[in-house]
Each structure stands twice: as structure tokens, then as C-alpha cells.
Amino acid sequence: MRIGLFTDSYRPSINGIVFVVDSLKRELEALGHEVYIFCPAKSMSPSRQAELLCEDEHIVRFPSVKGAFFDDYDTSIFFPPRELQKIKKLNLDIIHIFTPSQIGLMGMRAADKYGIPSVIQHCTDIYEFVEHYPAVLPGALALAGVVFPLSVKLDGKDVREILKLYRPRLGATKWNRAIIEKIVTMLYSKADAVIALCRKSQEQLLSWQDDDYHYDITLMPNGVNALPRPTEKEVAEFRGRWGFRKADEVFGFVGRLGEEKNLPILIEAFADYVAPERPKAKLLFVGDFEYRKTLEKMAEETPYADRIVFTGAMEREHLGVAYEVLDVFCFPSLKDTQGWVLHEAAHAKKPIVMIDRGVSEVVKDGENGVYVENTPESMARGIVSLLKSPKKRQEYGEVSKKLASRFTERRQVRKLESLYRKISGRS
Predict the structure, then answer these.
(1) What pTM was computed for the model?
(2) What percentage of the chain carries pLDDT values higher than 90?
(3) Is residue 90 within 8 Å of residue 416, measured between CB atoms?
(4) 251 pairs with which residues across the strands?
């Protein structure tokens, strides 16, 4: 099959959507399919960007400028009729959409115009994101009133619903959420298949549906492979660089240091509860983003700043060393739709402490993970329960590996391939 993947976030950005798109392209091509990625150039010169990244004609980039609807989403600049003709000439059999913004909506327009089966994957819980990014309201209104109507075939009922969204709500967050809930529901109802990556997202999308807008949802987490295992030398170098001794008890987080990840709770749990009780405990953050500065300031204001480590961003293929050093992986986010790093940590045989019970199929409470409440004290109790028991950590780690092995990239892509064949009549 000839498959088009449409995303408003792609390299050189580093985030879960980018990893997923690259993974799907690689695995689908390994199964014999031809795959095209449609994405922003993060530049006004797509050809220059393609040259810098050594890309071929299977990566189709659009001129774009920074001015995102959400972080890591550029504003793409293109003339839809011309781009639609380019898509038509590719004779795509499937259009798979990852983002409900400009490029994703153009993919939906092409699917409708040319009768191409479409899949929408619910990758980002933008409904919850707006709590931390309320300034996106103008972008949300533009999406609802301009971009969406120009991209998706609407009937009179759809137009009336969109007009209602322009009635002001009390507070930007409430207004943003009303727009997102309606636009997402309307858009997804027009697709041939919708994928939810976790049970929480599946339940959320179902709760938004009504008699006018409804659709089936397939629960299908993205596949994640184990990271390369680090050598003893690499582990020793990492420990030496960041001041970790073998006797230290290390817990922490790997991933983007965004405000929506609920990361201050780890610093509070460490400073108020873990550090005083466990003198060898240290807190590790691996990753980067604009919120890192806030977290570093918080850490500096604690009595234990010398035991809180920020490494900055690391190349994904080298992250295995960070997981190797961790004794306990913590995932405090309440706004993720799967948590790619949970799979990485599970593959690395890590016990996991987390809050959100509906976000992952690779964490089972009391088997390889500890679910806690959204308070520093509860988070600390979960962490300490594992730090003080090497035997439990080892047992939990073995279960983590077994659970992660059920959701490899190849296994999940074969399920996706079956869905493609079903909606295209090839099954």
C-alpha cells in the first residue's frame, strides 16, 4: 500500500509524535509498503531543510514559521489546491493523521476529496494541555472558524455548531476546551477509523460523542522497542560525569521537561520526604524544554540541590544509560496519551511509580508498578517503598520487561496494517 502520514510536528523537533511517525515509517516499509510523511519544514525553505537532513522525496515538507497552535506545532504556509494536486498524484491508499491542525486537516481534506480511507490517531490530549497553554485561544478560534471549515467538508449542522463556539466562555481555558472538544469530535466522526493509544483517551473521546457525532474507537498503543543496552564503560562514564555512586538510590524522569508533565511533584516529594529519610537517594531529570529553568530554580531552593541532577537532552539511542542508572522510574504526568518513556523504562526492567491509571498497558499496580495519588507525600511513599527493597525492584523489573515485550513496534504495526486493510477493503 501507499501510505501518507500527516503530522504538524516532525524532526528536528524531539517529541513522542516524531518518534511514532519515524517508527511507523520504518516498520511499514519493512513490511513492503511505500510511506510518505507530510510535515512542516520549520523553515521557509523546505528544499534546504531536506538537504540538511538528507531526506528524499518521501518526506514532503511545507514552508512554516514558528507560531505554534501548541508547542512543537509550527504554522505551515501553503496553497491548498496546489498541495492537494501533489497528494492526488501520489495515489495514496491510506491517509493517517496524527495532529488536528493545518497539515493534519489537509490530509483529511485530501481523503474526502479523493475518496482515500483515513485514520486519525489521537496522539495529544490537547483538551488538558490548554490548562498550561491558555494563550492558544486565538489559534483555537482560527482553527475552528477558518482552518477547519476550509479543510473539511461541512454541512449545515456542522456550521451551526462551529458558530456556537464563538460565544465567549468564562475563562480562556474553559473556552479553549469547548472548542477542542467539539472540533475533535466533528473531525474524528468524519474519519474511517480512530485510534486511541490508551483507555483514558478512549473513554474521553467516547464521553464527547452525542447523537449527531459518533464513531468507533480502536484501542491500539504505539509499539516501542527496547533501547540499545549500554556498556559497563558507558554506565561508568555517565555515573562519573553526573556524580552518581553505585551505592546511590536513583529515581527520576526521562522525557520532555514540559510544564504539563507535573514534574514539580518529584522535587517536592524528594525535598520534603525522600531526601531526609534516604540519605543516599538522588533525583535525576533527563531531558530538556523551556520548563527546565523553572525546575532547576525549584531544585536550587531546596536544601538538597546537590542531590538533584539535570542532564539536559540526550540522543534517544543513548538513553539506555540513563535508564540503567535509575533504580525507580517516575511518571507523574496526568496529560499523556500513552507515555512512550513508560515502555522504554519497562523494557529496561525498571519498576515504575505513576499517578495516571488509564494511560499505559505496560504498568500493573502491585506487579511492576506503584500507583500513587497526586500529592508529594503519596509520590514519596511509592518511591521509598521501592528504594528500600532491592528484591521488589528486581521482581517488578522482570514483570516490566514481559509487559513491554507485548507491545513491540513490529507487533503493533502489524495490527495497524490489519486496520488499514479493513478500512480499505483489502482484508
Answers:
(1) 0.91
(2) 72
(3) no
(4) 283, 328
